[in-house]
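2024-03-11 09:14:02 INFO receiving multi-entity request
2024-03-11 09:14:02 INFO entity count = two
2024-03-11 09:14:03 INFO echoing inputs for audit
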Amino acid sequence: MSAISRRKMIGRGLAAAAGLSGLAAAERIADRFGLVPPDHGGIYGPGETLTYAAQRLLTRHSLAREFSRSQISHSPFANETAPSSDQFKRLQADGFKAWRLSIEGLVARPSSLSVDDIRRLPASRQITEIVCEEGWSYIAEWIGTPLVDVLRVAGVMPQARYVAYFSIEADWWESVDMADALHPQTLVAYAMNDADLPVGFGGPLRLRVPRQLGYKSVKYINRLVVTDNLKQFGKGLGSASPEGGYAWYAGI
Amino acid sequence: MAGITWTVDRPAPVEERADAPRHTALVRVTHWLTAVCFLALLVSGLEIVVSHPRFYWGESGNVLTPALFSLPIPSSRATVPTGYGYVLPDQNGWSRALHFQVAWVLVLTGALYLVWGAASGHFRAHLLPSGSERSLQALSRALARHARFARSAAGDARSYNLVQRLAYLAVIFGLFPFVIWTGLAMSPAFASALPSAVTILGGRQSARTLHFLVSLALVAFLLVHVAMVWLAGFGPRVMAMITGTPVPARGPE
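2024-03-11 09:21:47 INFO inference complete, emitting structure
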């Protein structure tokens, strides 16, 4: 081996070592700043991580597009029939008076709110588009309480990193990071287009996350859990979607 | 920075020398990476389309609104009225994950190619029409030669003829950027950061429809590209793109 090629080899070895330690450092920094999604394992992990990290750097505070009243869709598509459980039917028959939204986990005051309790909190209205991962969409006005104001009732602890939210329907749950949880457009919606939120569209309560695809806007929510660790829920992938092959982060 | 040399620093671009490879290593690697990525994006993209084979114009659209056009295929979702009495298996999960991961590889490959192409003089030397070619007469002559399927001129063994150059420029600087743009415009988070990227296109559903149409245009390019390589002599030209071995020069007939 000539001196030049040896020097080249050493140079390349150093570059490779620098690259590897650079990657390790990048991973630590990415984790520190919350740029790694909970479903980062597996063969599609690199893509999910790049997308989530890039969009978190670009869109931490950006606002979902809002539309004019004239753009509200005349034919919104519900994509859902009502939950068939007896529990839901009993609650529905009573006008959802007994519906409760519990707030648990890393909160100072674990709480349980009725729909009327939530209606008494500051209301927010938004005309936004809901987009299904299949490709279709509609625009509607959603009225509700910003999730941040609902969480404030219970007092979020500073170590909180995610908010998991659960539907009354079994195995239907999602979670968002604090950037989306505290985002002013993330609503606990109870009305749509100036009427109570229809059951087909998620009534009595639906979490509305307009900067992500529709499947993050879970219907019939009855439980919020503030947490610093998503591993404790389900298969530890952050939500039910990755368990079915879909991305946890659905901003794309 | 040891070991990195810039092609621009050399006295003459490497591909100009007599013993130079037909295609530089960077062109070869980025060409095949792009080819593999495109096929993966095409397969996964079609799979995603199957979940809603209806297209709309404007901001929003769903099965309750009229479609601009629909593909006459069954769907993987029961909610889409297709006229078929059955629903295909749902493959959207992995299709979406593959689509977005490969899109990253394609974008990073494209960025590397663009930076290198500009810095090394590749675009100037091989893609931009040379001075004598920048006329309508030159274009009509080249098109006439193409229409007769005439064999390429001797110089074409080392570079591209005018029609090739224009087609490659349109794909590299037109169709690929547009397919990336229309794809990003469908991302609700990206749209929140850059709303005009969606509104310029006429809305979210317009972006989706355009994304589909541009990918059809890219498929058309791929078919013509492969057909032309076939007509010009498949083996030597594919080898030239794999190993860089120069294509034997032939005179015009």
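2024-03-11 09:21:48 INFO post-check: The first helix of chain B runs from residue 25 to 50.
2024-03-11 09:21:48 INFO post-check: Confidence is low (pLDDT under 50) at residues 1-12 of chain B.
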